[in-house]
Hints:
Layout lengths: L3 E9 L5 E10 L15 H9 L6 E6 L2 E2 L5
Antiparallel strand pairs: 1-2, 1-3, 3-4
Pfam families: ABC_tran
InterPro entries: ABC_transporter-like_ATP-bd (IPR003439), ABC_transpr_MalK/UgpC-like (IPR047641), P-loop_NTPase (IPR027417)
GO molecular function: ATP binding; ATP hydrolysis activity
Amino acid sequence: MASLSLRGIYKRYPGGVVAVSDFTMNIKDKEFIILVGPSGCGKSTTLRMIAGLEEISEGELFIGDRLVNDVA
């Protein structure tokens, strides 16, 4: 496993809806985390961006030392 780093992540949908705004998080190798928050705060959208199912509008997603924003 490798570390995961989200730096200044944004998700904007057409029409100007911002689902995730300036989200930064660092997860170390073998670290366990949970995302909690109210409905509609961007938890699922963040997980979908990490999984590559949603495009990142702005910011950087690293797995280890590799930038993976545009990896298919």
